[in-house]
Amino acid sequence: QVQLVESGGGTVQAGGSLRLSCVASGRIESVLKMGWYRQNPGNEPEPLATVLGAGLKEYADSVKGRFTISRDTAKNSVYLQMDNLRPDDTGVYLCNAVIRTLDSFYQRDYWGQGTVVTVAS
């Protein structure tokens, strides 16, 4: 089985920066996609940034020019560098990955528990 563990959340002032990390572990055969979502209470998760196995990156319009996603394939990890943070960036940031394990040819969608980001102003 696979686990995703996020870290790096916290409280910052508007205009500040944070760097989030997500590490996938388990019997991983291949990681097809990893990305970050944001969820506020009562709202649906919002996709923010995604990187494919080949390195192609996609960003939501709300974070373009401010957030940067990167990966370390050797560590099965993905990072989100967040700059020029705004109060409306506040929320629970969830790591998501599409992974094929060594035990099955099926690819599945995995989620971390989330890390909280609070931007004060």
TL;DR of this structure?
By secondary structure, the protein is mainly β. Helices cover about 0% and strands about 60% of the residues.
What does it look like?
The mean pLDDT is 95. This protein starts with a strand and ends with a strand. With 121 residues, the protein is mostly beta strands. The strands form 2 sheets. Strands 2, 4, 5, 6, 9, 10 and 11 form a 7-stranded mixed β-sheet that branches. A 4-stranded antiparallel β-sheet has the order 1-3-8-7, with no helix packed on it. It is built from no helices and 11 strands. It has strands at 2-7, 10-13, 18-26, 28-39, 46-52, 57-59, 67-72, 77-82, 91-101, 107-111, 115-120.
Which key phrases capture this entry?
4-stranded antiparallel beta sheet
